[in-house]
Write a structure and sequence with these properties.
The protein is an alpha+beta fold. The chain folds into two domains: about 1-20 and about 90-150; about 50-85, no CATH class. About 30% of the residues lie in helices and about 25% in strands. It has helices at about 5-20, 50-65, 70-85; strands at about 90-95, 100-110, 115-120, 130-140, 145-150. A five-stranded antiparallel sheet has the order 1-2-3-4-5, with helices on one face. Strand 2 and strand 3 form a beta hairpin. Helix 2 (about 50-65) packs across helix 3 (about 70-85). The model is unreliable at about 20-25 (pLDDT under 50).
Length: about 150
């Protein structure tokens, strides 16, 4: 069984769920507005509600500090990926007791399983290899996250 911190659980769950929830959003019902009078200035066109994918892509662009054309290009590609069903991917780097970095990459799959790649090559006292597992049935635990089954 794999064990991760509680913060990692939240990050994994949010990343994996955002990919699927982007398509499950329903359009919000527009609220009726009072008719404009002749003396009132022209109202702006009503904005469409933003999708979960759009909001998530904006957050990622903010985190990267993107502005202008770079931001627009990044958001466009990000939203296209979400619509195309590109798998969600999360890389978490854990540290050993000695402080050696151990990157673990989680990639969601179309069948609901999660591909887990653990790279221990930088662990001076460990196996120093890359392992790949396909896991299903994630559950939260007090100490992190467990998978019901994992196969090589």
């Amino acid at each position: 069984m794999m064990r991760l911190s509680s913060r990692t659980i939240v990050t994994i769950a949010a990343s994996l769920l955002l990919a699927g929830s982007a398509f499950a959003q329903t359009a919000a019902t527009p609220t009726p507005t009072a008719p404009a009078t002749k003396s009132a200035p022209a109202e702006k066109k009503a904005e469409k509600p933003r999708t979960a994918a759009s909001l998530e892509c904006s957050k990622q662009a903010d985190a990267k500090g993107l502005h202008g054309k770079e931001r627009k290009k990044f958001r466009s590609e990000c939203i296209k990926s979400a619509k195309a069903g590109t798998p969600a991917r999360l890389t978490v780097t854990r540290s050993t007791t000695e402080g050696d970095p151990i990157p673990v990459t989680y990639t969601s799959r179309a069948d609901g399983s999660v591909k887990v790649v653990t790279d221990t090559r930088q662990d001076a006292f460990g196996d120093q290899k890359i392992t790949t597992e396909t896991c299903t049935g994630p559950t939260a635990a007090d100490y992190g996250i467990d998978f019901a089954t994992c196969t090589d």
